[in-house]
Amino acid sequence: MKKLMPLAVCAACAAAQPLPEKRPDTCGAAAHAGLIGQDATALEKVLILGMVRIIRPGDMVTQDYRPDRINFVVAPDETITVINCG
Fold it and tell me: Measuring CA to CA, which of 19, 24, 32, 49 is 20 to 30 A from 71?
């Protein structure tokens, strides 16, 4: 029984971590959720009026938060993996 006690303590620590804060969809990113998993060239067929940022691996990215800007995160295989505001 004494050997199981550290496992119970570790499990409690893992469960206590807070979830990341969910930000509101201020830029309309949810409307483009269908692009996730598609090739980045799919962005050429979509008309987006407003600020857009495409982030690829190794790109330098500013840390400013722009609630009206849509970020498209592209993986090394050129697929869109994340779409969010900022």
Answer: 19
